[in-house]
Specification:
7 helices, mainly beta, 883 residues, single chain, 5-stranded mixed β-sheet, 58 strands, 4-stranded antiparallel β-sheet
């Protein structure tokens, strides 16, 4: 399986959420053109590789890998698009999400309560789904959504901080999880840390600068983490750290230090009231209140990654500061004569020049004899297609000022049992995104490091083992055999490591890791096989922790078992499928899952969008025992991408829809509006027909159809450098297309000049349609024509529009659905709102945490509303309860 293909998708930028200003981290270049689905390409190459090699595979670079396998540009482009929806056409001021959360909580509520339907184990290796486009048998086992931080103590308590679903606690060494931060206005975790008194500190705002990371609302402390829960009253200091991300929290000299997206701050650990102190910001003019605060680059000018405090002298502190893609201010800083000064020499092997200091993580040994560091290099990121890792280092003096000695590089790690040995995707290729580092409290030379994989050294870095390989594909022990999880290989962890902790349970020490697939543990001094792979990883994703990050949801009748089948596309966890008789969810498509189509009449007719309109389709739920490896006629899922996929003229997560009156007519949006009329029987991308060209530089953001009438929204440019948007309306047969004239400056009462996110068509009248608008209104957005409003209505087929937002909170709107009887439900970045038939005002639906709801769908019988949340799984509520 080609690692570059698998990773060409979901990662790079900073979109942002719950309680703060949304700022996007700009992409450095246009996307490449990889159009192949992960599972298909991966397993096909494995089959060929197995015939030629016993120990592994070395996939050839294909034509679509014209960038030589370097995914950085594609990742950055795809990730940037998630943020564009929320920021364009300008810069969003701090406080936008906080104001929206307050407004949402002040709405009256509908009846009924939400029910989580995905709160059960999700088996990524489910043996039922080993078809051509599946990732099953890779070895990750039970998974959940991305975890950004971990903490653990010596009493069996483990804390997991998720990317968008809050903080969770286990009292049994992992598993049997309970959420403990649902009352906070931010559910995105940046850092978790236990201080010397046993208090749990939470820094909100994930700092991995990836596609769907959200800003936070500050730092909180839980005095009794064994029993308590976080509340807004437990925030440390004032609002100084609102609208930031927190990369690390460190303790020393009676202070807690926070490395944030707005510099390094400190606060007393004894007196929690009072303001945070700004210790150092390299470019203070770009901070809120500064002369350059509105500059589009402001979000990247004061990024701090970590703090190293000398254990022998807490007054000696080293700051690791810098933007992962490079900036003049990148480097290490320490105080000289009371002034923070860049360290320009004396670090030994650890670089001091700006070009080679990027994302950095420190860790020190419990006895103070060793300091370790990971350094990601902006120069490597921008020039080396194989890796962005500069190296792993040790300071044997125990001082963060060194001298430092390099103890690992990407080539050495690749040779130590790694699964990432192919050109274009080697250890550390995403070191800007994947990093953790910790030292065994009982042994200063025993270190765990996380990049894409998990590595371990027991001798201070002289020798390394890949104890958690990226996957087991390519190893001689691997087999697709459905009677086994992953052939004869042992379970590994999910890929892409972010958080780590060491704790004890019943007197035994464990290392806990958090990654894009959730939480895993193994004994600190665990066992390895002959290749250095751990034999004792245990998945802690038992179904009680649901932090799954859905982009979409699809529902269809389960003809084999009664009830319905529920599917959905996920960040880095493929597509989940839940049949009506299941006690465990399976994964029938691998990689990233984007939009989803499911036949309401048959839940095994499924189409899943990978990225950039790479669409796969199946008519049997993609059930397969893997026999296709030896007999290609047994493949039951097919790649059917429209041509805009190959040309790169589609958005990272591109819109895909079926006609509400005819499930055999599909609409897909890239530069063109594509239509195919073979439904789930489609077998080739050639079966799509372009019915309308949106124009050069324009890409579809939303499509919908009913009875042959098609609506398409687009943007282009889609960022805040000349943002434009528009709507085109026509027929699925290619006739009657026209571009609707929308005022360029978003005049009062008209559609604003912001990202158009979805359509909802009245099932009784195709000319009656609703439009949702993302981003924030002009009160918060500094940009041309930002306008006001988030929900608009047209009764003349899109020719004119009326703002019906009324008392709707000023929050990005993502999806809408017309309910039976004429109600309207809208999914936003902070939950779901509803306007009852005949009413003009909005109510809050239930009491979801502050989580983004990216798609709403109705059940086949129209009686149940499904909400795909990006961090807390899929929820349902009965339509009759909304009245």
């Amino acid at each position: 399986m080609s690692a570059p293909t698998r990773k060409r998708r979901w990662l790079t930028i900073c979109a942002i959420t719950a309680s703060a200003a949304l700022v996007a981290i700009p992409a450095g270049a246009a996307s490449g053109g990889d159009s192949s689905p992960f599972g298909a390409r991966a397993l096909a190459q494995l089959a060929a590789g197995r015939a030629q090699s016993v120990g592994g595979i070395s996939p050839k670079v294909k034509a679509e890998d014209a960038d030589g396998g370097n995914e950085a540009d594609e990742i950055a482009e795809g990730a940037d698009q998630y943020a564009e929806a929320r920021t364009s056409p300008g810069v969003v001021a701090p406080g936008a999400y906080g104001a929206a959360w307050s407004s949402l909580n002040n709405l009256s509520s509908t009846g009924g309560s939400w029910r989580n339907v995905t709160d059960l184990p999700y088996n990524s290796d489910d043996s039922r789904y080993r078809d051509y486009d599946s990732n099953s048998s890779g070895g990750s086992g039970y998974v959940t959504g991305r975890l950004a931080a971990m903490a653990a103590d010596d009493h069996g308590y483990v804390y997991a901080g998720s990317a968008g679903g809050g903080v969770w606690r286990s009292r049994s060494g992992g598993g049997h999880w309970k959420p403990i931060s649902d009352k906070l206005p931010a559910q995105s975790t940046g850092a978790l840390a236990l201080d010397g008194g046993g208090r749990l500190w939470l820094g909100t705002g994930e700092a991995s600068t990836n596609a769907d990371a959200y800003l936070g609302s500050g730092v909180y402390v839980l005095s009794n983490p064994h029993h308590g829960t976080f509340s807004s009253r437990s925030r440390v200091g004032g609002d100084e750290l609102e609208s930031t991300t927190v990369h690390e929290l460190r303790f020393g000299g009676g202070k807690v230090w926070a490395a944030t997206s707005r510099g390094v701050w400190s606060h007393s650990t004894k007196k929690l009231v009072g303001a945070w102190k700004l210790e150092f910001a390299p470019n203070p003019d770009y901070l809120p209140g500064g002369s350059l605060t509105s500059d589009p680059a402001a979000a990247y000018k004061n990024i701090a990654n970590d703090i190293a405090i000398d254990p022998k002298d807490p007054s000696k502190v080293v700051l690791a500061v810098g933007w992962r893609s490079g900036d003049d201010y990148n480097g290490f800083y320490t105080k000289v004569n009371g002034t923070w000064t860049r360290i320009t020499s004396g670090l030994g092997d650890l670089p001091s020049d700006a070009d080679n200091v990027g994302n950095v993580t420190f860790a020190r040994s419990a006895d103070g004899s060793r300091y370790y560091a990971i350094d990601q290099s902006p120069e490597q990121l921008n020039t080396n297609p194989d890796s962005g890792l500069e190296g792993i280092y040790v300071s044997k003096s125990g001082s963060p000022t060194g001298p430092w000695t390099k103890i690992a590089d990407y080539k050495g790690l690749a040779a130590d049992g790694s699964a990432l040995t192919s050109s274009g995707y080697m250890p550390g290729v995403q070191a800007w995104y994947n990093q953790f580092l910790t030292v065994d409290p009982a042994d200063a030379e025993h270190v765990y490091t996380g990049l894409e994989e998990v590595y371990e050294t027991k001798d201070g870095g002289s020798n390394w083992s890949t104890v958690g390989p990226y996957w087991n594909f390519g190893f001689s022990c691997w087999s697709i055999d459905p009677t086994k999880q992953t052939g004869d290989c042992n379970q590994t962890t999910h890929s892409d490591q972010h958080g780590v902790a060491i704790g004890s349970y019943h007197g035994k020490s464990f290392v806990y890791v958090g990654n894009d697939g959730g939480a895993y543990k193994r004994p600190v001094n665990g066992k390895q096989d002959a290749e250095g792979h751990a034999t004792d990883w245990i998945s802690l994703n038992d179904g009680t922790i649901d932090t799954l990050q859905y982009f979409s949801v699809g529902i269809g009748k389960d003809l084999a078992h009664g009830g319905v089948s529920v599917t959905g596309g996920l960040q880095d966890n493929g597509q989940s499928i839940l049949r009506s008789n299941d006690t465990v969810m399976g994964s029938n498509f691998g990689g990233d899952g984007g939009d989803t189509l499911t036949d309401p009449a048959n839940g095994c007719n499924i189409a899943e969008e990978y990225v950039y309109l790479a669409v796969q389709v199946t008519q049997n739920c993609a059930i397969n025992d893997g026999s296709w490896v030896n007999d290609s006629s047994k493949i039951t899922s097919y790649s059917v991408a429209p041509a805009d996929n190959a040309t790169g003229e589609a958005r990272f997560i591109a819109p895909l829809a079926a006609d509400a009156k005819n499930s055999s007519t599909w609409i897909a949006g890239g530069r063109h509006v594509w239509v195919q009329t073979h439904g789930y029987a489609i077998r080739s991308g050639d079966e799509w027909t372009s019915v309308h060209d949106l124009g050069a530089g324009h890409t579809a953001t939303a499509v919908a159809a009913s009875g042959g009438k098609v609506y398409a929204a687009w943007c282009g440019p889609c960022n805040n450098q000349g943002f434009t948007r528009g709507i085109a309306v026509g027929n699925a047969d290619g006739t009657g297309w026209q571009d609707i004239v929308l005022p360029a400056k978003g005049a009062a009462g008209t559609v604003p000049n912001r990202y158009l996110s979805s359509f909802a068509i009245d099932p009784k009248n195709a000319d009656h349609v609703y439009l949702t608008v993302n981003g924030f209104s002009r009160q918060w957005t500094e940009g041309p024509g930002a306008g006001v409003g988030h929900v608009f209505e047209s009764t003349d087929g899109g020719t004119t529009w009326r703002d019906i937002s009324a008392n709707l909170p000023d929050v990005p709107a993502d999806s809408a659905v017309v309910t039976p009887g004429g109600g309207l439900a809208v999914g936003t970045d902070l939950g779901v709102v509803y306007r009852a038939p005949g009413r003009t005002t909005w109510q809050r639906v239930g009491s979801l945490p502050a989580v983004a709801v990216l798609q709403l769908r109705l059940s086949p019988n129209g009686k149940t509303l499904y909400a795909a949340t990006h961090g807390r799984g899929i929820y349902t509520i009965g339509i009759r309860n909304l009245s």
